[in-house]
Amino acid sequence: MDQLTALGGAQAPAASHSPWLLEVEDLHVHFVTTRGVVRAVEGISYKVKPGETVALVGESGCGKSVSSLAIMRLLAKPAGRVVAGRILFQGRNLLELSEDEMREIRGRDIAMIFQEPMTSLNPVLTIGFQIMEPLLIHLGMTEEQARARAMDLLKMVGMPDPERRLDQYPHQFSGGMRQRVMIAIALSCNPRLIIADEPTTALDVTIQAQILKLMKDLSRDLGIALVMITHNLGIVARYADRVNVMYAARLAEQGAAAAVFAKPLHPYTAGLLRSVPRLDQPRGARLETIEGLPPNLLDPQPGCRFAPRCPAQRDACVAAPPPLAEVEPHRYSACVRAKEMARVGPTGLGLQSANPQPPVPKRLDKARPLMKVDDLKTYFEVGAGFQVFKNTRSEVRAVDGISFEVFRGETVGLVGESGCGKTTVGRTLLRLEEATGGEMVFEGANVTRAGGQQLKDYRRKIQVIFQDPYSSLNPRMTVGEIIAEPMRVYRLVPDAKAARDRVAELLTQVGLFEYMAERYPHELSGGQRQRVGIARALAMEPSFIVCDEPVSALDVSIQAQIINLLEALQEKYRLTFLFIAHDLAVVRHISNRVIVMYLGRVMEIADRDTLYAEPLHPYTRALLDAVPIPDPALEAKREYRVLGGEVPSPLNPPRGCVFHTRCPLAGDECKMAIPGLREVRPRHFAACIKI
Amino acid sequence: MNNSSTIAIPYRVPKRRHPVLLFVTQQPLGAAGLIVIVLMGVCAAFAQWVAPYDPLTVDYAAQLARPSAEHWLGTDSFGRDVASRIIYGARTALAIGFIASFAGCTAGAVVGVVSAYFGGKTDLIIQGFMDVLLSFPIIVLAITVVAVLGNYVVLGIDVNLIIAIAIPMLPRVERVVRASALAIREMPYIDAARAAGYSHARIIFRHIVPNVVAPYLILLTAFVAQAILAEASLSFLGLGVTEPTPSWGLMLSGAAADFYQQAPWMIVFPGIAISLGVFAFNLFGDSLRDWLDPKIKL
After folding, report:
1. Could you tell me which residues are beta bridge partners of residue A596?
2. What is the pLDDT of residues A373-429, one digit of tens each?
3. Given an 8 Å threshold on Cβ–Cβ distance, is B9 in contact with A325?
4. Where are the domains of chain B?
5. Which chain B residues contact residue A455 at CB under 8 A?
6. CATH fold group of domain B40-59+87-292
7. Is the peptide bond before A494 cis (omega within 30 degrees of 0)?
8. Mind listing the domains of chain A with CATH numbers?
């Protein structure tokens, strides 16, 4: 193809008789492992028109990434192989091309954007070189042409100062900027199709909104089709034209995004939609969940894969797998009761309760706080080690003077973007980090610098649940040993038998089975491991638990199960939670009060409903705006502003109000002094001079 | 739309096999090394029955006899059977090799874990000390230690010789184990243990040590080879095992060097024994590393 016409922006569709750009037909992918054959993709079919955005949605392990790697022919060899099916791209079957022909297509006609912007760029090559590389290889440009084009591309993806940025290395870019670079590389050869595999999962919510808007705009302006792989239903609702819902290697449902969200025709879709806590709906007493776990693809049951978890299951479901059939015009569902569901809706099939229970208000003892934090500061020295010249040290003010109270029995949510210091607050409360200043008073006793027996007593009462269920359990200990250890150390049980009984009791409490005490953590699923983490925290009989992103590593359906479990345990044992999370919808669901942090400082504190209904601080408003809601109809009506810019480096925070660099309201007076937290309305505190 | 559910599997699926069998098929060189090690072990353990002669019996009638049906590998200048001395020498080599390697690696691992866990000044001081130890070649450091300590034989084994061989290993093992432990220290389950208020000893021994066992085991096998070599070298230099105890290194030195033209078998066969032993342990250690590291596994 003539290179210069290829560069002319939106290009005419290639000579092809089909209106479809990409057609995936009955794709089957197997992975051969020593433990057996994993049928990772079984009979996936979907089509993509030029210029449209198609989403593949599903939980981890459902085969959404594998099916797109198969399109690029990048399956891990020799384990992964396509055993059946066709992948037609512009009428050519990609599976029949030679490796050389395929290499021509990769990067030029089909580009890919990966999840992890931190690792998908080569750290020893400049950004400029990495953008120019495909131009030099695929389009045969000269150095000067490629450099000029690279500059244009960086401008196109909204990179400030592109000339200087071209000669920088990846470590000099933030996560969001790196993802922009990845997009620039993907766009470099004017591809017709971009496959984006969870492109914003590793990014903060305000940056996520920036990147997705950019991708959507570019795809519309340049006529590039976008295949978006994601687990986030909100993103699908905001950005996708059509959606394919996958479950356990198969397609569950297919259709236009608006139609699928408005009227799901597969019980799994319905389940997914209601298990996500939403910002736009009043919270019910409990999240409705999909019970159970996805099947093991090494040895799946016959029939419908979702049947064991489906409340609307019939005998026919187990007999044979239901085919993906057209239920309504352009609506496909792989469910034997799809027609019935189309008529009576999910409620009619008993998939969700008709009128959700309102939550029971908690009675709190407001007289005396369980934990009182006053002007807490935690600074880290960077460039630690042996230093002769003290003045070369600098410090990161991870937590810079925050104060709050937590009352017995309540859940306080702590939200903010990465690097805002929310995790450090938790770690300081746990005494995993030493506070630089301020004090923490727990049950009337100052524990900021407590040591010896006092510290031991404190640690018994305050526990932690971590984010990553894969690394928070010691892989060399059995589940029983992990849970029993604190009881044995603190002599909470008289002997080994009592410990075993208590372990069994705790396992039942967190929804696991007694026999799992003999298992090792790697034999459990992510959700099950998180339950073990909760059981370990409960073993100490604490009164206060710091939950550090306890559900953010879990799939949507499992996430809802864990949230419900935490709430049930809180009620039963009168526990107090500090719930640290970046997901505003989850925090809204579980918290009584919410603290919003930015760059080590508190921006706003208010009761849950007040904060979400009438946010005062411009940062809180921007955060809430950035969260996509899983409802395309609402999203279309919603006017959201994308918060520009990035979180400044905590090494060198802005003077005055730390938010003034990104704030839409900011004026010169904001740069003068750090605004204190003041009670703007009763029980509603905000740190902003403009309100 | 087609949604056929099951596709026949058009290829053979590897069966799950016994781990030992899997090791042999995936690491044939390592398996060969293992066989040699086992043979050495058998010779060392059952030397009385395997060896055709007593290794200490002097037979002036058969001085410097060439290899023959009677003396397979010939005799030395005292008429002692070379084959028997090599077989008994395996006992010395393996005993000192294993004990020294075990002592050196264990000490190194403990220091490494402690250094990584406490970090800060403790780490800095320990690392400085290790740097000093690392700046000497293994054999030079061992010679220095032997020269300072002299000989101290308990149950037929020279304790000071073992110390001399173990000390140069310490910093090398320490470095590797410390690196692993540093990674483990950052794991959330260590934070969980700290948040639970466990003692340092419990966190180190219950939570960190079991997670650095894999690199420790690999180093242990690799350093057995180093220890055998070190023992042979020290004995050759007259600082290790003393006459008349059979030792491979010792067999190369002394009279052997004077007679190498008339009786090359006195040197060649113990030399082969040393090389073969070291080679076998190195092969096995390498394979074990690949085997235990899931990232390298095919």
Report:
1. A415, A604
2. 999 999 887 765 555 555 556 778 889 889 999 998 899 999 988 878 888 999 999
3. no
4. 40-59+87-292
5. 197
6. MetI-like fold (1.10.3720)
7. no
8. 369-686 (3.40.50.300)
